[in-house]
User: What shape does this take?
Amino acid sequence: MSEAIKDLLKKNHMSVTDSRLQILDMFYHAPGALAHADIEKKASDKIDRVTIYRTLQTFEEKGIIHTIPTADNSVKYALCKDRCEEGHHHDNHVHFVCDKCGKTICLDDVHVPEVKLPKGFQPQQSNMVVNGFCSDCRS
Amino acid sequence: MSEAIKDLLKKNHMSVTDSRLQILDMFYHAPGALAHADIEKKASDKIDRVTIYRTLQTFEEKGIIHTIPTADNSVKYALCKDRCEEGHHHDNHVHFVCDKCGKTICLDDVHVPEVKLPKGFQPQQSNMVVNGFCSDCRS
DNA sequence: ACATATTTGCAATTATGTTGCAAATTTTAT
DNA sequence: ATAAAATTTGCAACATAATTGCAAATATGT
Assistant: This one.
């Protein structure tokens, strides 16, 4: 089980360390996206704040996780399920933030629609975040 | 000229103060969205940091400005040009962030397209941010 | 002009993020 | 299996961003 995680690290030319295994494991078992603070709480004292920052940064650079721009401007991370390569992300899917439980979820199958921009604007990348109630929380 | 700004404050049941006039004026003359830091710089020492935070918060609650969720998770604010009411925003337009000059621009005429969500998800609000080059910066 | 209500600025505190460096751990070569 | 080289970690210090309580200052309604 954690063999798969080790392999993922090796495949991306990263040293296999406790912190990395632990953090990656969290992502694999998390119901949604994770913020730095979430990881810090779950790891409670076992991993240094700084190590978490650095690990998240490395994971992002390697294309293992991607950041999610949420409406409240908090930084969240989630696993890249598409094929992301080092330094290049293909996470062009819509993200959903539940207003009740707060979970942030990648809607991997819903891709961000194109929009027609005014004259002169040259688009490069689009992000879309939808707020509302997730399937567990709608009443 | 600043009469209009005063009226806007009065219309929203807010006291008319120097800080508020100054900050609102900045928004009316800014080329794009403003971050807390931008306002702090422009007001250089005349307005306390804390006052800026509180003013922005109040303006947002009153529906005068709205926050923009950018990809780099920095908080920016822009005037609500649509009719926003107290505690309820209708800023359903696309935002554009220029990768060169950094300007954040409200594309008031481009509204966020609807997307089809998986079963069970109940959308409430959608946000879309496009990165790229603005009309001034494309080469 | 005065009493009341609101807003401001200061100080203190908390949260968030970064950097340098020595110690610990992992990897590589033998 | 072991030692050297490379990488990663944790600590301390620092920088920035944001929040809160409270007294002084300012604005509003009569």
Remarks:
- Residues 2-132 of chain A form a domain with the Arc Repressor Mutant, subunit A fold (CATH 1.10.10.10).
